[in-house]
Amino acid sequence: MEKKKYVFETEGKIIRYRYPTHINDLTIPREETASSEVFMVLLDEKEAPPFHKHDDAEQIFYMIQGVGKLEIKEDGSSESEFFEIIPGQVIRIPPHTWHRVTALNKEGVRYLCVDCFPNGFNPEEPTWDSHVKNLCDQLGWDFNIIREDRR
Length: 151
Known about the structure:
With 151 residues, this protein is mostly beta strands. The chain has one domain (15-143): Jelly Rolls (Sandwich). It has helices spanning 128-139, 143-146; strands at residues 15-18, 23-28, 36-43, 58-65, 68-74, 81-85, 90-93, 97-103, 109-116, 147-149. Strands 7-4-9-3-2-1-10 form a seven-stranded antiparallel beta sheet. A hairpin with a 6-residue loop joins strand 5 and strand 6. The longest helix has 12 residues, at 128-139. The radius of gyration is 15 Å and the shape is globular. The relative contact order is 0.25. Residues 40-114 form the Cupin type-2 domain.
């Protein structure tokens, strides 16, 4: 039986995913949990992930560094809402909610993201890598360039 892991790194010996738009440093992969995953998001000034939604997950962000602009649009709504977000704040992104964070300052933005999957993981994406591979296929990115194993 494999020993359970209780303590995880957020820097250094991690797997980094450097997308053209942002960085995700994988902290706790979904394959280590029952129904969640945790990663750090790093955005350089003016960087933002694509505007997107998760039908299978609720996300919680904890702002650590920088000033960001959160764009939110509920499914079916025609208008986006915008919020300035700063260190110390906690942000909740419900399932089916379009969203993105844009870094507004020179030092960029850093936040911890916790994905919670109330109905379990998508069977087509049982691992973090399978999720990233699907994302790369959708956006025309090269998975082998994006994934950097720093362990």
